[in-house]
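go over this record:
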Amino acid sequence: MLAIVGGIGAAVFFATATLCSSRSSRLIPPSSVLAWVMLTGMVVTVPALAFVGRPHDVTGSEFAWLAISGAGNVVGLLFAYSALRIGKVALIAPILSTEGALAALISVLDGESLETASAFLLAFIVVGVALAAAAPDPDRQVVDGPGLRPILFASLGALAFGASLFATGRASATLPVPWVLLPARLIGLVALTLPLALTRQLRLTRRALPLVVTGGLCEVLGFASFALGSRHGLAVAAVLASQFAAISGLAAFVLFRERLSRLQLSGVTIVVVGVTALSIVRS
């Protein structure tokens, strides 16, 4: 039961964060969105460290995995926000959800064996992304439309998330969840929030404030919810958490009146089905 609750909770939190970011990134620059999201996450994460205590005997390799996990998360979010600023949630979210598939691919490059079913599903997902990218957008302006930029940004974001997810898996095997959450927030604070604030380039509007705060909270809560669920059933939690893409797309259709062409919808459906099936196979 906890695996189901944790997985659904992660999907809802991640979908909420995606929807909030899609709106806030159109009100203020993506770099400012990320800066505020990281600051919010830090405020939530630091108190949690007191409850789990300081880990002992942390090795150099664990520090390295934490650094990769944090940097990959920050870079991935920056690309994701850039994609959501100019692209549709229903198109961007499924591409971002391929982070798990890319983490699996990275694990293969690291020496893990790849089953035939997993290889087929990875190729299936690639076809879905390619189809969604190649299909014409029914709302695209002929002259100044965003073109393939949202797809490119989302793909780069998914790649960064995949590397972060792989490193997070290595680090979380021996470290408490709050300490695994800390590096991304710390890197974002030091590398982005503080420099933007010192150079007076940190932007925030009244409309964007509740969006960036909610997005930052949901990023942390989504990860924590998935971690809780995965301890009681990794397969169930992974499958349900990956459905954040479907939830985001449906919510964007209802809230933002987003429209996709039939080819785009076909590509997105292939990606969602492929990611769900791969989550089951890999778990």
Notes: The longest helix spans residues 60-86. Residues 253 and 259 are 7 Å apart (CA to CA). The two ends are 17 Å apart (CA to CA).
